Each structure stands twice: as C-alpha cells, then as structure tokens.
Predict the 3D structure of the following.
Amino acid sequence: MSADLGHLFGEIGAVLLDFDGPVCSIFAGYPAPQVAAELVDVLRRRGVDVPPDLASEPDPLEVLRRTGAAGDHGVTRAVEDVLCEAERRAVETAVPTPYGREVIVAARQAGMPVAAVSNNSAGAVTAYLAAHRLAEHVSPVIGRAYAEPGRMKPNPEPILQAVRSVGEPAGRCVLIGDSISDIEGARAAGVAVIGYANRPAKVDAFRLAGADAVVTSMSEIAAALIDRGSGGADGGLV
C-alpha cells in the first residue's frame, strides 16, 4: 500500500477531503441515530406517513436523502434546517480522527491545496475547522447543497466544484473518503480516490468499488505526504 500511495501522490497536485471520517467523527458526542430520530419527528409533525424502515433509519443523511426523493420541498427544507442545526451542535463534541490533522498540514507543507468536500453542511465543517485551528489550511469548504440531497455525493457535482476551486485538473486531484459514495463520486468526477477504511469490512468493499488505494489509518496518508514534501523517492511510510 505504501508503494500505491507513493506513486499516487507523485501525480497529485491537490487533496480533497471528505469531512466525517477522514477529519473527525462528527457525531461522536451527539449520536447519529439520535439526530436521525429527531429528523423523523420533523416528518411526523409535518404529517408525513413514515414507513417503519425510515422510522428506524440510523443515518440522518439517509433520512434527508429519502425525504428529498419524496418530492415535497417544504418538508425537505424543514428537515434540512433541523439537520444543519444538529450538525452545528455536533461539531462541538466531534472527535478528531487520528492523523487527520497531520494529513492536512503535510499536504499544505508539500505545497498542495486542500479542500473539504462533504455531505455535511458547510457551516458545520467550517465551524469545526475554525475551532481546531485548521481553517487557514482548508479552502474551499464545499458542503451539501441546501435542501437538495440529490446533489450530495455520489453525485460528482460537489467534487467537481472543489476541483474548479483548487485550480488543478481533475486528474491531478485525489479525494480521501470513507464511504462508497465518496469512491463512486470520485470515479464519476474523474479524480483519484483513496478509501479510508475505518472499519475492517470496508477494505474489500472499497477495493471492489475501484479505489486507487485503501488505507486503514490516516497515518499512512500523512506519511506519504511528508515523504513527498521532503523529496523522498520511494513514497515509503514512516
């Protein structure tokens, strides 16, 4: 895997980072199933007949996605507003991902722009980066389009928006993400993708989905970036 990363970063000019996973665990202190349940309550208060599988959905982004697919934009906006507020509260107790900060700093020290491309709200991502003294290192922050969940990853649109902002061709950008939607979105956008497998079951799934490299720790990426920044020839990990 070290050789994969060394070769990959030799061809890359910009890093695009998913937020929840590679940078932090946003819902560590405010559990995602609790947020999802609050969104379901919004649906019920708006008179929506909630099917059992949606009522028990633990992922708030999936609740938003399914709400948007139902086609009532007023209801979607109501759910979006509650989710944005929940995410802003969640980042106050979010737990940083080990070596996530080091990846950002190492990329910048290697002269590479770093952008955030997240299905979370831009406001929540920006608040986290500011609180952890990372805002100056990450620009732009591309969050999900307001009340338009169909534009979230795996839709390539937010990834391509980040590509345009960093000023590098898509083929010289790499997305680091921890979900299949990240990998599918990156493939559709024409950017390289590293799968951060923060659970063992993700390793094979990411490889099958076409990730250019798969890591189980962000330390592997940080080491490859440090090696590139110091002019190392082999991309080896430290």
Remarks:
- Residues 9 and 225 are 7 Å apart (CA to CA).
- The longest strand covers residues 173-177.
